[in-house]
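Quick one:
INPUT:
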């Protein structure tokens, strides 16, 4: 029969032979865990990028639809007949020039001709400098 010391020596030899294999296996398991965590992180980044891309695409499509709608509106507006420009503003200015030559004040000219106070004042200065034609 084998003595206790021989069994112990055999167990130690077996353990010494198995121990490096166990250490290598443990290191491999740690590496696998790191790779799994990295893969999970990369997968989440990929999902976030796909979500952002889908959102950008949705916004781009919406903007394109709005642009088409605006182009149709502009085309419609361009096809509509334009109203003729009325000659009333020039009448107001010629009336203002005549009133200025007659010595009317700026407030009276603005109220009578339907122009702003600033326009009446400008007309008065232009008449004083000879920039408005006399009738």
């Amino acid at each position: 029969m084998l003595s206790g010391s021989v069994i112990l020596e055999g167990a130690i030899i077996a353990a010494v032979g198995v121990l490096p294999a166990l250490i290598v296996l443990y290191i491999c398991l740690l590496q696998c865990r790191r790779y799994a965590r990295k893969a999970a992180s990369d997968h989440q980044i990929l999902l976030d990028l796909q979500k952002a891309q889908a959102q950008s695409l949705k916004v781009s499509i919406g903007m394109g639809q709005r642009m088409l709608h605006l182009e149709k509106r502009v085309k419609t507006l361009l096809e509509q007949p334009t109203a003729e420009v009325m000659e009333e503003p020039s009448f107001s200015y010629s009336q203002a020039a005549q009133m200025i030559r007659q010595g009317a004040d700026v407030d009276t000219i603005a109220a009578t001709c339907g122009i702003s106070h600033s326009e009446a004042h400008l007309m008065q200065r232009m008449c004083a400098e000879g920039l408005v034609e006399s009738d």
